[in-house]
Recover the amino acids of this structure.
């Protein structure tokens, strides 16, 4: 048997495998755990609700994946067994994800959680992965089987969700709701919507575009970095709770520099945009009263970097920033929260960004698509009083997470490595929110 660590992968020969999701049996503070599987296409999504194999749907229609039962031993361990027959896996299915979930507790309460794969033909134990870093998660992707060069491989994933099986499955495209009648006009509208995140933007008048191009050329900075003196039509709703408006500050330079913001900035949250052209290291810190680096606002070696961060300013001393860069041109700007875009139901971007959320409490599903084998993805929420919420914190091949989102107003700060990210706000739902999720029996 080959034991692998989180992120490791290895080939799994044979045509039929048996997979055991093993843990301590429920009782004495240990919650019940369910095993399930998702069949995913090349985009990493299910094709429909039928691609989830779980307690209410124990076999896939193709016969390729099925739950075969539960076994307990004298040492109070329990294993849910699945079987995968690769000869029956449809060509459109590129990955089979093995998951565990609990609606009665957190995985930090579940000792001995591991997954192992056995060849049905030879009885050989092919792979073992033990989860040793579980905490508040209520669902886990333990591992995945995936196609590579005409063969199958297994990868240890070990990525957790705080939203249970429902939230995990929805992140992979499961709808799982009871059908509701829709008006004809509404159905036609949804059919016309594009598959990409967000609706198509309205056409921008050419006169306005010309003014934007002229302003950008004057300061030689990309559109994401605001132009000094730019005018905003009306304040963003609820933004005033994070601080008063002030005149935007923009400074450009080359190489290392210490900057003192020379416009009056009231106490509260401020937004710091930074851009650097070329390659090499680029970092931006706030500077404390002793002249030392304080809050990290930019930190990259990527070429032609653009990013945005949020800083809580006490208003007592001059606001100072420190740029640490090789001999490359850069621009740093400081502006009020009222200039931020608002996070509605969905958003997407690249690199660091900050969005204003003003909606009700829900779930925030976040995802990063990157060329790196392992990449970090960090999302925080900042309340007006300074309280901070961790909304995503993953480091994997395809970082993805789903966590509770507090009620707005909230500043949502995204920090990520090179890659395109997306956020989606979803209503919080329980497992009994529809017949699809309602357990027929334990």
């Amino acid at each position: 048997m080959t034991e692998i660590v989180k992120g490791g992968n290895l080939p799994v020969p044979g045509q039929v495998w048996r997979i055991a999701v093993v843990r301590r049996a429920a009782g004495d503070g240990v919650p019940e755990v369910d095993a399930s599987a998702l069949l995913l296409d090349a985009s990493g999504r299910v094709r429909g609700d039928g691609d989830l194999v779980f307690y209410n749907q124990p076999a896939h229609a193709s016969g390729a994946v099925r739950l075969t039962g539960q076994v307990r031993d004298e040492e109070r361990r329990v294993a849910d067994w699945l079987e995968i027959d690769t000869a029956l896996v449809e060509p459109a299915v590129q990955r089979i994800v093995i998951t565990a979930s609990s609606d009665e507790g957190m995985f930090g309460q579940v000792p001995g959680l591991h997954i192992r794969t056995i060849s049905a033909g030879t009885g050989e134990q092919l792979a073992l992965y033990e989860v040793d870093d579980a905490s508040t998660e209520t669902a886990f992707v333990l591992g995945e089987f995936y196609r590579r060069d005409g063969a199958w491989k297994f990868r240890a994933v070990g990525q957790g969700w705080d939203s249970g099986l429902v939230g995990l499955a929805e992140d992979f495209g499961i709808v799982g709701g009871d059908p509701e009648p829709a008006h004809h006009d509404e159905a036609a509208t949804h059919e016309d919507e594009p598959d990409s995140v967000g609706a198509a933007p309205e056409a921008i008048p050419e006169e306005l575009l010309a003014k934007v191009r002229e302003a950008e050329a004057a300061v030689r900075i990309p559109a994401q970095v605001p132009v000094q003196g730019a005018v905003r039509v009306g304040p963003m709703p609820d933004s005033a709770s994070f601080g008063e408006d002030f005149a935007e500050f923009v400074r450009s330079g080359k190489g290392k520099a210490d900057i003192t913001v020379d416009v009056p900035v009231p106490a509260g949250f401020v937004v710091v945009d930074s851009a650097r052209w070329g390659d090499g290291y680029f970092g931006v810190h706030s500077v404390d009263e002793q002249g030392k680096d304080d809050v990290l606002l930019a930190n990259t070696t990527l070429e032609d970097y653009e990013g945005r961060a949020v800083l809580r300013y006490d208003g007592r001393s001059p606001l100072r920033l420190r740029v640490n860069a090789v001999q490359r041109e850069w621009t740093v700007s400081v502006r009020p929260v009222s200039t931020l875009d608002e996070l509605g139901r969905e958003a997407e971007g690249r690199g660091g960004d900050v969005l204003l959320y003003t909606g009700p409490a829900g779930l925030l599903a976040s995802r990063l698509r990157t060329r790196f084998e392992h990449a970090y993805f960090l999302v925080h929420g900042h309340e007006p009083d300074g309280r901070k919420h961790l909304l995503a914190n993953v480091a994997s091949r395809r970082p993805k997470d789903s966590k509770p989102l507090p009620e707005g107003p909230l500043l949502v700060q995204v920090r990520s490595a090179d890659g395109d990210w997306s956020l989606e706000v979803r209503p919080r739902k329980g497992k009994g929110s529809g017949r699809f999720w309602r357990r027929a029996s334990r």
